[in-house]
Write a structure and sequence with these properties.
81% helix, membrane, VanZ family protein, mainly alpha, transmembrane, transmembrane helix, VanZ-like
Length: 148
């Protein structure tokens, strides 16, 4: 029963993480992405002594942030459905994450400076599929290890 409660807590935390980032005004979201770009740009300049046009990298940081958020969601939803549902837990995790991703994009319509961006969805999908596949692979390896 303890695993079930932990799985609920992890799922709630993952959902709250996504909500927190979704409800950020566009300016705050852009500033957070730019902070990461600046850190990496400074490291690059120290290592390579070069400057580059960082705008394409800024766009990638913004897009891959979706993958990181949804990787967490994929892991949390996998644990949740493994704890609560014995039939098709990974399929349920995929469906759940897809619904959350679409709701996330739709909710951005009402947040100042944000918009529904269809190009974010593939990065969401990539993140939650990697998270779900990670749990699947780790669980299989754990079962193999326990059988030795």
């Amino acid at each position: 029963m303890f695993k079930k409660y932990i799985s609920i807590l992890l799922l709630i935390l993952a959902i709250l993480l996504i909500i927190a980032f979704t409800l950020q005004p566009g300016s705050a979201s852009a500033a957070l992405a730019m902070h990461f770009v600046n850190v990496i740009a400074k490291m690059n300049n120290k290592l390579n002594h070069t400057t580059a046009d960082w705008y394409p990298f800024y766009i990638l940081v913004r897009k891959f942030a979706h993958s990181v958020e949804y990787l967490v969601m994929g892991v949390a939803s996998s644990f949740f459905f493994l704890a609560w549902e014995k039939k098709h837990p990974y399929l349920l995790a995929v469906v759940f994450c897809a619904v959350v991703s679409i709701c996330d994009q739709l909710s951005k319509i009402v947040v100042p400076g944000r918009e529904f961006d269809i190009t974010d969805i593939p990065f969401d999908v990539m993140g939650y599929l990697i998270g779900i596949l990670f749990v699947y692979a780790a669980r299989n390896e754990w079962h193999k290890f326990k059988q030795r």
